[in-house]
Amino acid sequence: MESPMSQENPSYLHIRDSQQMVWIVKGNSLIAVPSSNNVKPVILSLIACRDIEFHKEGEGTPHYLGIKDKNLCLYCTEIQGYPTLQLKPKGEKCFLFYRNYEGSTVVFQSVSYPGWFIATSSEAGQPVTLTKERGTAKSTNYYLEDGR
């Protein structure tokens, strides 16, 4: 996850949506499930990218998003003509997401696919995906809490 143009120390954060869905790793996918005592959610590892090439006014700060203790990063790739969220073990542009604040929540927009946002379904057990449709059945706004 490290890049010469990124901060040295990551922020470790728990993530949940407004329906109390948290993320877990299942195989090579991120899955959104209801938060409970029986669930061990992932802790995100966020590293801000300082490379000015990726900074755009009004888009938020670009970040690498990783999964703590898993050596995995979230990235976007195109599958069957649509941007798709995947997990991979290294970082580059396709791994960057703009982190933008909206009130007390944050949204993560793909740097490689502008207008596509990380999203969770209101239905438990569904993969964490990307969507262009904000404000629909998918949640694109998240609460972050200290994960240390």
Automatic annotation (TrEMBL):
Keyword Secreted set for record: yes
A matching Pfam family: IL1
GO cellular component: extracellular space
Main location: secreted
One GO molecular-function entry: cytokine activity
SUPFAM superfamilies found in the cross-reference section: Cytokine
Keyword Oxidoreductase belongs to the record: no
Signal peptide segment: none
Compartment list: Secreted
Keywords for this protein: Secreted
Any one GO BP annotation for this protein: positive regulation of gene expression
InterPro entries (alphabetical): IL-1_CS, IL-1_fam, IL1/FGF
Role according to the record: Anti-inflammatory antagonist of interleukin-1 family of proinflammatory cytokines such as interleukin-1beta/IL1B and interleukin-1alpha/IL1A. Protects from immune dysregulation and uncontrolled systemic inflammation triggered by IL1 for a range of innate stimulatory agents such as pathogens.
Annotated family: Belongs to the IL-1 family.
Protein name: Interleukin-1 receptor antagonist protein
Taxon lineage: Eukaryota, Metazoa, Chordata, Craniata, Vertebrata
